[in-house]
Amino acid sequence: MPSMKVEGDSDGDGDMSGGDTERSAGSSRGPDRDSSAEEADEPDSDDSSEMDESECERRRNECLDNLANLERQFTILREQLYNERMKHVKYQLSEVQGGRSQEYLGPLRRLQENMKVRIEVAGILKQMRIENIRHKYEAEEQAAHQNFKVSNS
After folding, report:
1. Hey, which of 58, 95, 135, 144 would disulfide with 101, CB 3.0 to 4.6 Å?
2. What is the gyration radius of the CA atoms in the chain, in angstroms?
3. HSE-CB of 3 using CA atoms within 13 angstroms
């Protein structure tokens, strides 16, 4: 049966887990500092509100400066991205115009093969139609000769 570890038991090398001692030490210090800081701010009623407003205004201005800086950086990066894309598109266009682009040449080859097949099929269809028209003409001509012979006899 596997041994179960109970809180407070040793890890095997005789030490308690460090997380428990740090957590308990940190939790006892944290609230004391906060409450003492709040108590120090409360006695100055008029001055603290002035400081709070000035502190808020300072932080607000700092945040606005950060925001403006981020917007400038974003604009610069957006322009860089646009320029890079335009450069890439111009390069691709020059490749296509020069007949070197594989993205262009592959589909172009397939289109040319389809065009050859269609031209060949159209040529055969044209020959068949011409032959059909010739047969109809010959049949009409033969029918006319037979009608002429029958009507003259």
Report:
1. 95
2. 46
3. 7
In angstroms, rounded to a whole number, what is the distance separating the alpha carbons of residues 20 and 24? 6
Q: Residue 77 half-sphere exposure, CB side, CA atoms within 13 Å?
A: 6
Three-class DSSP labels, 70-124: HHHHHHHHHHHHHHHHHHHHHHHHHHHHHCCCHHHHHHHHHHHHHHHHHHHHHHH
With CA atoms as reference, report the closest residue to 20 among 5, 7, 31: 7
Q: Is residue 6 classed as helix, strand or coil in its secondary structure?
A: coil
Specify whether the CB–CB gap between 17 and 11 falls below 8 A. yes
pLDDT for 96-143, tens place per residue?
A: 899 888 888 899 999 999 999 999 999 999 999 999 999 999 999 999
Contact present, 42 and 48 (Cβ < 8 Å)? yes
List the Cα angle 92/98/104 in 5-degree steps: 55
Tokens matching residue 89: 């598109």
Q: Could you read off the pLDDT of 32-49 as tens digits, one per residue?
A: 444 444 444 554 555 555
What is the distance between the alpha carbons of residues 33 and 40, in angstroms, rounded to a whole number? 11
In angstroms, how far apart are the furthest CA atoms of the chain? Answer: 140
